[in-house]
Every structure is written in structure tokens, then in C-alpha cells.
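FORM 12-B: Structure-to-Sequence Request
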């Protein structure tokens, strides 16, 4: 038996994970889930963790750090560092249920020869390993999103006539050839990309997306913006004809959020609306709530709609489809107007002043 070893194996079934929402450490008053000096206004989330970013050097100097923050209050885990600014970040979810890693885009440094040095990178959820480069030599990539085994992003480009365009690009989440799927004018540059997948399994059981990716051209850094729009690119790729909502002649369009019960929700100048495909291949919109201006961030959970009241940092909730503004209920104050997330128990957001990931019970 030389070379063999004895290992004790338990025949008991492994413990079941806690029910969704039961592991949150939030309470009725706002508390900090984690202290992250230099916390940046970005969040991602899966069942057991919140994902956050920070720039510990302050003042835009030093590397930016990607963190995995357990919802049960355990210490944060550093997943990766980027020496150049991160311009977009998304969780990789190959089957729409399991999160397998984090994918992000970097602006890159000015190359010695003036060439593009931006990149798309990925890292697993355990940390401790070097990030994998999925695509290098990119020109200011941003607004990344994943659907199945594909990652999409926007970057600057030049069309066949030599004119500047914004290009929608794609590659595999494992890396490989980069494909240009769509070109739009620079005035339709995505600031955030989302995806709606209506169905998606082939006869062999593999995941095949059906639906669309979409983005908003609304930039929350600009004040009094009223000419943004939502652009919709239907699957399969290469994309078919683009659909557009909002724009300067239709009251504009602002924040956009995935809606599992429709295609997505978006903010217009005075409403939050739900958008879904109709049987004729068009799009049907329905008002969910009235608002006194553009909403910076919107999320939905079940029959409830959550958003930041325009011009404030107050997070409120309302029943989806209930247009009476007096029915709004206050959830928390001091919430960053562009980023918050919620599960079945807690609401999470970034407190940049305190350098913390804050939370409170719904």
C-alpha cells in the first residue's frame, strides 16, 4: 500500500444552503456590510455575495480593486487589481443562474506608438490568480455585458468611410476571436448595456440566447440631459434592425434595468415604463410609476419597483403599475443615485463618503 493514504469521507448529505435572503446581515437601520476605502459607485450581486470596486489611492491614482463581499458579514476578498481605470464591469453567468466570475473592461494607457491599449479581462470568484485577458488592444472599451458564453461591449471605431463610430463587439468568455457586430453613431454611445433573454435551450440542452441586448445613451454625469434614448439590438447575432425608444422628440430616456417579467424597465422624463415585445415584432410600453424627472437607477423585485427620487438620494418603493406618487414608501436616505441592488431581504448601495457598502432591510 506504499504511496496510498487514508481519507475520512462523510456519508451524510452536505448541508443545504440557506434560503435566499436568510443570510443577509442587514437590519431595520442602515449599517455597513463592509468598509472599503475609496469605494466606487458600482455594485454587482449573486445569491451569497455583493461585488464592489474601490480605488484605495484616492484622487484617481493607484490601482482599482475588485472585491467579493459576502452578504453574511464575512471579510471581503480581493479578486483582482487593475492598474488603469475600469470602464465597465459585469458578472459572468453562463446559464443565467450561476455566477462563474467577473468580467471587466479597462481604458488602458496611451500606447507608446499611440495604439489602443484597452482590454477585456476576467477572473474567477476565488481570487488569488492572475486575471485572464479575453481581448487586448481595444479602443476605449466600456459597458460590458455577458449572455451565455459570449461577452459584449462597446468601443470606439472607424467605419468603412473613415468616419468615427461606436462599435458593439463580442468574444467568448473564454477568449478568442473578436467580432464587430454592430455600428452606431458616436451620439449613440452606450453608457450601460443590459440583456433580456426570453428563452434559450437548443435540442441538445445547450444554452442559446433569444431576446435582445439594449443600452441607454443617458449619462448620469450630465445635468438636465433630455435627449438620450434606449437602443435595442435583437438576437441572434449579428443583430437585426435596431429599435429606439425615447430620443429628443420623445421626452428622452434614462436609467434602464432588466425585468424578468418583461423585456426591461426604463426611466423617461416623467415616468418609469415597462417595455416588452409584442406578437408583431414591435415593442409595447406600459407606465409603472410617475416621477418628477429622470431616475438615476431603477430596480424591481416581484411586484415592487424601487428607485431614487429625482434630485434626491432617497430610495423609495412603489407597487408596479401604481401611478399615485403619494403611494411611495421611503426605504433609505443617502443612497447613491446611480447604483443600488436588492435581494429578497436587503437593499445594498455604495456610500462613497464613508468608504462602505451600506445595507438596510427592505
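FORM 12-B RESPONSE
SEQUENCE OUT:
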Amino acid at each position: 500500500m506504499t504511496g496510498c493514504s487514508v481519507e475520512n469521507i462523510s456519508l451524510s448529505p452536505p448541508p443545504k444552503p440557506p434560503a435566499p435572503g436568510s443570510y443577509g446581515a442587514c437590519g431595520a437601520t442602515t449599517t455597513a456590510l463592509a468598509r472599503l476605502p475609496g469605494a466606487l459607485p458600482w455594485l454587482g450581486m449573486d445569491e451569497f455575495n455583493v461585488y464592489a470596486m474601490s480605488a484605495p489611492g484616492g484622487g484617481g491614482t493607484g490601482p482599482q480593486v475588485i472585491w467579493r463581499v459576502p452578504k453574511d458579514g464575512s471579510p471581503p476578498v480581493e479578486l483582482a487589481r487593475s492598474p488603469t481605470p475600469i470602464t465597465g464591469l459585469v458578472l459572468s453567468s453562463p446559464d443565467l443562474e450561476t455566477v462563474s466570475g467577473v468580467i471587466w473592461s479597462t481604458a488602458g494607457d496611451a500606447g507608446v506608438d499611440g495604439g489602443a491599449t484597452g482590454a477585456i479581462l476576467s477572473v474567477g470568484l476565488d481570487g488569488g490568480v492572475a486575471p485572464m485577458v479575453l481581448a487586448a488592444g481595444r479602443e476605449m472599451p466600456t459597458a460590458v455585458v455577458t449572455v451565455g458564453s459570449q461577452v459584449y461591449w462597446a468601443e470606439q471605431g472607424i467605419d468603412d468611410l473613415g468616419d468615427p463610430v461606436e462599435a458593439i463587439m463580442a468574444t467568448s468568455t473564454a477568449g478568442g476571436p473578436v467580432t464587430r457586430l454592430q455600428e452606431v453613431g458616436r451620439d449613440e454611445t452606450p453608457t450601460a448595456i443590459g440583456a433580456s433573454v426570453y428563452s434559450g435551450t437548443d435540442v441538445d440542452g445547450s444554452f442559446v440566447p433569444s431576446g435582445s441586448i439594449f443600452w441607454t445613451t443617458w449619462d448620469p454625469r450630465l445635468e438636465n440631459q433630455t435627449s438620450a434614448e434606449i437602443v435595442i439590438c435583437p438576437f441572434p447575432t449579428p443583430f437585426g434592425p435596431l429599435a429606439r425608444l425615447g430620443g429628443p422628440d420623445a421626452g428622452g430616456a434614462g436609467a434602464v434595468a432588466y425585468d424578468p417579467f418583461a423585456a426591461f424597465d426604463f426611466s423617461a422624463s416623467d415616468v418609469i415604463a415597462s417595455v416588452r415585445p409584442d406578437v408583431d415584432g414591435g415593442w409595447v410600453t406600459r407606465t409603472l410609476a410617475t416621477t418628477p424627472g429622470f431616475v438615476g437607477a431603477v430596480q424591481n423585485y416581484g411586484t415592487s419597483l424601487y428607485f431614487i427620487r429625482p434630485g434626491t438620494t432617497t430610495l423609495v418603493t412603489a407597487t408596479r403599475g401604481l401611478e399615485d406618487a403619494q403611494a411611495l414608501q421611503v426605504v433609505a436616505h443617502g443612497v447613491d443615485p446611480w447604483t443600488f441592488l436588492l435581494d429578497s431581504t436587503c437593499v445594498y448601495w455604495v456610500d462613497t463618503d464613508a468608504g462602505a457598502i451600506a445595507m438596510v432591510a427592505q
